[in-house]
Amino acid sequence: MTAVTFSTHAARDRKSARILPQYNSLHHRTWWKFASIAFVALALFLTMYTGFLVAIGGTLAFRFVGFPILVMAGVSLWLLPDVDKADNAPFFKLLAIYMFLMVAWPSYVAIAIPGLPWATPPRLMLGVLLIGMLTHFPQIAEARSKVVDLLGHDPGDFPTRGSL
């Protein structure tokens, strides 16, 4: 009788209600293992596809491969959780390093990869600054409100700059 009782859906729900909450997550479901294996297989396929496309088309093929990557990065940034912590990002230190490198580093000393722009330390520091900004603003409401206050101070200024 117990074998028949535990095979019904209601009995399985009663049985799962006794499971501790930390073990009643997606990682302990049987379909999650198959989904994670399928996701890894898809990632491996896309990695091989990207490698073959870049091997055939050179660095110019990054345009075709980079668009889906940029779309997924944008969605990932959009889905970042809003955390309630102080707005104290190291932007001023990074900006000071960037400004120092712009003055001190000659632009003709760079890593030159054919088909790509020169990689100089100021450009790399600017990339670090942009990545920091792109991950900071979606998460910190105080930083967003500062930008909105700054841009919303003059109602005609933002559309004028946007038209340029």
Description:
- This protein is an all-alpha fold.
- It contains eight helices and no strands.
- The chain has helices at residues 2-6, 9-17, 30-57, 62-78, 91-104, 121-136, 141-151, 157-163.
- Helix 5 runs antiparallel to helix 6.
Most strands sheet = none
Overall shape: it is: extended
> Strand tally, please?
0
> What order do the helices and strands follow?
HHHHHHHH
- Helicity, as a percent range: 55-70%
**What is the number of helical segments per DSSP (H or I, 4+ residues)?**
8
Overall structural class, as computed from helix and strand content, comes to mainly alpha
Output the radius of gyration: 25 Å
* Overall pLDDT metric: 77
User: So what's the oligomer here?
Assistant: single chain
**Cα separation of the termini:** 77 Å
Strand content: under 5%
Note poorly predicted spans: none
Helix and strand topology:
Blueprint: H1 2-6, H2 9-17, H3 30-57, H4 62-78, H5 91-104, H6 121-136, H7 141-151, H8 157-163
Helix pairs in contact: 5-6
List keywords for this structure.
mainly alpha, 65% helix, single chain, 164 residues
Short description:
65% of the residues lie in helices and 0% in strands. It contains eight helices and no strands. The longest helix is centred in the N-terminal third of the chain and has 28 residues.
